[in-house]
Amino acid sequence: MNTKAIIAGVGMTPFGDHSDKTLKDLGLLAINQALSDSGLDFSSIEAVWAGSAGAPLITGQVCINGQVVLQDINDKQIPVINVENACATASTAFQQAAAMVELGAYDAVLAFGVEKLYHPERQRVGQVFMGCTDTTDPDVLTRFLGRKVDSAQRHSVFMDIYADMAQKYMDASGATKRHFAQIAAKNSYHGSLNEYAQFHNVLSVDDVMNARTIVDPLTLPMCSPLGDGAAAAVLVSPKMAKKLGLTTSVYVRSSVLASGANLENLPDLTASTALKAYQQAGIDPAEIDFVELHDATSPAEMMYYEALGLCGQGEGPALVEDGATSLGGRIPVSVSGGLIRKGHPIGATGLAQIFELTQQLRGLAGARQVEGAKVALAENGGGWLGNDAAAIVITVLSS
């Protein structure tokens, strides 16, 4: 790539139940915040990448989600590219937008993700998550789990997948259910400091341990909730940044998109993509100051510690015990509260991570500020194919 894209502005809605708002309402809230933050009017934007994943099935709005959200302001008829890539939807929109700026195609672009998941018919919500697996051959998932998923169950199929992964990780690493509860309790404290988070109550380790079991070893506070919301970012070229007079630039050091496949002997998707992201950014994992990762469940956070190179294989439990991933620790993780506390509106999650990284690198994160943060990483995965994620984006930002 020819030059680094710069984040000029970010915006985000609180995550939670927004049944009173339309997809358009939510999208514009985040977009207008990002535009105001950047100092640009929409008239200066040259292209838009619009992410939405579950909302088409929930709301019935398909195919032109981005155009619908922007219909009242897109008077220049600029291109709007709709993006859908499971839980990695918004980060994919961001990655594609950043790539086009870095290639010199545009000087100012917008990426946003917007999601609606709440619906009175719980079965319809379940169809969203089941649709993030291979529905052409459901036996693949059955073989992975060793059992068939009950289509009438109230929880997401991904809780079954993460529970299976957690059991295997416990057997291999010596991690315990209490370690996972420690992560959930840590993130509940982080989330209590985040005004955008879906949950603000602080939980103890025992609170998490004693909560209702979803799929063993996962209790309810270890699992990400349903949510609605939106997040957005304005990206500009160095030329445009100079024109705007940006004084607190946040640079896209790398943003790597990769896809899984149902093939034998493939490397772990997260680990291999992280290596590419580090190489493109020209850094070592030890240089990362904090991380926002895809903790759809608390065990997933611990497993990603190792895949991202934050610690060695099997060393995840020790990292938690040492408090290294807590705010004030050596490598704070999920300081926003993560998916389990901030919430997980799947089509918006990736850009919510970018929002958090940007505010932290600017020194504007308030009570949850990571002191001295200069380099940060976001990891956002989505879907399931064979025995690994179907899509992933890993992004490195720096101030």
Automatic annotation (TrEMBL):
Q: Where is the Thiolase C-terminal domain?
A: 271-393
One Pfam family recorded for the sequence: Thiolase_N
Domain Thiolase N-terminal: start-end pairs = 6-237
A GO molecular-function descriptor:
acyltransferase activity, transferring groups other than amino-acyl groups
Question: InterPro entries from the xrefs?
Answer: Thiolase (IPR002155), Thiolase-like (IPR016039), Thiolase_C_2 (IPR055140), Thiolase_N (IPR020616)
Record-linked PANTHER family: ACETYL-COA C-ACETYLTRANSFERASE, NON-SPECIFIC LIPID-TRANSFER PROTEIN-LIKE 2
Protein's name according to its UniProt entry: Thiolase
Q: What is the lineage of its organism?
A: Bacteria, Bacillati, Bacillota, Bacilli, Bacillales
